[in-house]
Write a structure and sequence with these properties.
Layout lengths: L2 H53 L2 H10 L4 H25 L1 H8 L4 H23 L3 H24 L3 H22 L10 H35 L2 H16 L2 H19 L3 H14 L4 H17 L9 H26 L3 H26 L1 H26 L6 H29 L4 H23 L1 H9 L6
Helix pairs in contact: 1-3, 1-5, 1-6, 1-7, 1-8, 1-9, 1-10, 2-3, 2-5, 2-8, 3-5, 5-7, 6-7, 8-14, 8-15, 9-12, 9-13, 10-11, 10-13, 11-13, 12-13, 12-16, 12-17, 13-15, 14-15, 16-17
Length: about 475
């Protein structure tokens, strides 16, 4: 498999999907305001945590066992049965405590939460099975399709006055459609699983489930706690800043999802040098987009959030902190992805436990005293703890080099980009007077991205080789 090309396909697909989602979010922010956007973020956070409880690492275990190449239909069937049972039980609990759910969000959304939960679990199962069949590019291509469908339905429902309910319903319908398409693209059949298949999934999932909890902790603990301590409009502002930071994680997510099946296969075949090379590649390119994004967040944070509306500009103070957090977390994710790929779930369990504890404790301590900034700082500090622990642990398992030179060259190219962006922004403000914020942002981002990649292409031999090796014209 041409890993670079596959990563790019996944990245490009996610980029297109996120761009479509960004347009929809802008429409919701400008039409409904920060308060409704905050309620929507709270609903998605609740569903994400319920989905974690409904999955408990089974999806990751399905992918891992299927990539090992034996009894794949039995493993896929066993995983689906377990997740279905958990999902139905959790749905019943939501209906039982519907008043508490509705009170927390501020709207009667419990039935829609159940629908989102069940359909999200369905989609996660199809995605994990596709990845287990090493069809990562297909899951990547399904992403923009799902977001496009979701955005169109949501915008239509909001336009006719459905507001929050329309946003949630659109999300649920899109999940269902993508899951059905993914199911149709699977090659694996259905087979009656034995006890050993359930036991094997359990042996992997009993440690790997905490990886999902760690991801949810990074993405949603701050949002959930902000919903407790602050009003929904501030949650909406914070969520808008988070959406920009998460947009920058698309490439490192594409790298990790592409490399996991290859790491797993290389480890199963005893090719340790290949494993080390894949780890080094993941660290080399994990920050390729996030590093310039950090500089851009510092320089253009207020302009970026002004696109959402004047009330969102207050989030500029936390945007660059959240991007720094995603950069640290991105490296942590690559390292933990490698640990999972070489079948070390106990090690990832311990690291994830430390990360989650740090994240929860810091958020509880800092949000009541520092507000939005406290939530962002807590997230960044906990990511720093996680990346240090992950690096030490992985280096005790396999020998690999940290590509410090390549990372330094990416920072150097980002610094050059920042200088050019500052110069162009000054020119636009003083000489040309381009009095249109959105047009200014688009121009500055385009100039910055071009400067960064041209500079990196010039100073990094490894980056040039990667571009040439994965070119469609390279045989």
């Amino acid at each position: 498999m041409r890993i670079g090309q596959t990563s790019f396909v996944v990245f490009a697909s996610k980029l297109l999907g996120s761009a479509l989602g960004f347009v929809a979010t802008l429409y919701f922010a400008r039409t409904l305001g920060a308060a409704v956007l905050g309620q929507y973020a709270l609903v998605l956070a609740i569903v994400a945590w319920l989905s974690l409880a409904g999955n408990l690492g089974i999806s990751g275990a399905i992918t891992k066992r299927m990539t090992e190449g034996t009894d794949t239909p039995a493993y896929a069937t066993a995983g689906a049965l377990v997740v279905a049972a958990f999902g139905l039980a959790l749905g019943a609990l939501v209906f039982l405590f519907d008043e508490a759910v509705n009170a927390y969000v501020g709207e009667p959304v419990a039935p829609l939460v159940v629908a989102l939960l069940l359909l999200g679990l369905f989609q996660s199962l199809t995605n994990s099975a596709l990845q287990g069949e090493r069809k990562v590019h297909i899951t990547g291509l399904l992403t923009p399709v799902g977001i496009a469908v979701r955005s169109v339905i949501q915008i239509a429902l909001v336009f006719v006055g459905s507001e929050l309910v329309g946003m949630i319903a659109g999300y649920a319908i899109a999940n269902f459609l993508v899951a059905v398409v993914g199911l149709g693209l699977l090659s694996v059949g259905v087979a009656r699983p034995s006890r050993k298949h359930f036991a094997s999934l359990y042996e992997y999932a009993k440690f790997s489930w905490l990886g999902g909890l760690q991801s949810r902790s990074f993405n949603d603990v701050d949002v959930l706690l902000l919903g407790v301590f602050l009003q929904s409009s501030l949650v909406g502002v914070y969520s808008a800043a988070w959406s920009i930071a998460k947009f920058l994680t698309l490439f490192d997510s594409a790298v990790s999802s592409t490399l996991f099946p290859e790491l797993s296969r290389a480890d199963a075949e005893g090719r340790q040098s290949s494993v080390a090379g894949l780890v080094e590649d993941s660290l080399t390119y994990g920050g390729l987009v996030l590093i310039p994004g950090l500089f851009g967040g510092i320089l253009l944070g207020d302009r970026l959030l002004r696109i959402y509306g004047p009330e969102f500009v207050t989030g500029a103070s936390v945007l660059w902190i959240l991007i720094a957090a995603t950069l640290l977390y991105g490296y942590q994710k690559q390292l933990l992805n490698a640990l999972n790929g070489i079948d070390r779930p106990k090690a990832t369990f311990r690291i994830n436990a430390a990360f989650i504890a740090a994240n929860v404790i810091l958020n509880v301590l800092l949000i009541p005293t520092v507000g939005l900034v406290g939530a962002a700082v807590a997230t960044a500090l906990s990511a720093g703890v996680g990346v240090v622990l992950a690096l030490v642990t992985l280096r005790s398992e396999i020998e690999f080099e940290i590509p410090l030179g390549e990372i330094a060259r990416q920072f150097a190219a980002a610094a050059a980009m920042a200088a050019v962006v500052v110069g162009v922004e000054t020119l636009l403000r003083t000489a040309i007077d381009l009095n249109h914020n959105f047009a200014t942002v688009v121009l500055l981002v385009a100039v910055g991205a071009g400067t960064y990649f041209i500079t990196l292409f010039g100073i990094s031999e490894a980056f040039r080789s990667t571009v040439f090796d994965n070119s469609p014209f390279h045989s």
